[in-house]
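Need tokens for this chain, all 300 residues.
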Amino acid sequence: MEDIEFLADTGTADVQGVIPSIWSKLVEVAARPKRVYRSYVKFNTDLLNKAGDSVRIPRRSTLTAAAIAEGGTITPEALTFGTALTLTPTEFGVAVKLSRQSVERTQINLLQDATEELAQSLAQIEDTEIRDSLNAATSNTLYGGDSTGSADIAAGDVLTPQLIAEAIKEVRKNDFEPSVIFIAPQQEWQLGTQDQFVNAATYGVRDFIKTGKIASYLGVDVRTTTNCPSGTGGIGTNVPYHVCLMVDGKRAAALALKRNPSIDKQYLPLERKYVIAATMDFDSGLLNDAAVCKITVSDS
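Here are the structure tokens for all 300 residues:
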């Protein structure tokens, strides 16, 4: 009875102290980029679960037919090979330790949550490695506005439909077929304010109006990702910019997989801790430099 009277006479701040705090079983995970690049590279599994530490992808020249005069003969051409792309897989890994007490005493399924997070971490590193391979291309480069390099990018040098069309031309003139352009959210917004995407009565493009997303343009897939290359430029202005990547999704880059993502779990009885490790073994590289066109544009 005395305890009840004590609680009844307690101020609001003290009452809050006896109300239990309940942890939800749902966990809100920090926002992460979505993996988008893997679907647009040449996928090689020659090393998957096999002996060997590297794979070479040969680059062969093409042959040219010629007219033959009556009674003439064909002069054989040499079938030549250029420098092969050598991919040497590297093991990537990430791990966590969870105390047995935390696993057993929380409502959250910590083991499951940690496993999912580790898998997402591997997906992210794969995406950025492929991005860096594509960004290594140097044959075709375009810049927003009147810029001629990232150093003089200025506000207003934004991505336009005209730049996309020009990037398609740059890739096609090298006998490659662009299938996708990777852009950052800032550039998706820039395109979304252009007449081609908001004036459906004139251009008949309703994707952005209905869904808020640009799925394709001029026959090329548009993939928005925060994993686009970025930086700051401009003379004394530090203008934020992104590099959009117009890519032949079948011939620009290659991904060699040595081992698929794997999860290993172990309980350490002396430490009373669970250890979860996630690893995968792969490498990516630029296969055809001219199959990529880089478009550097400001974010505003």
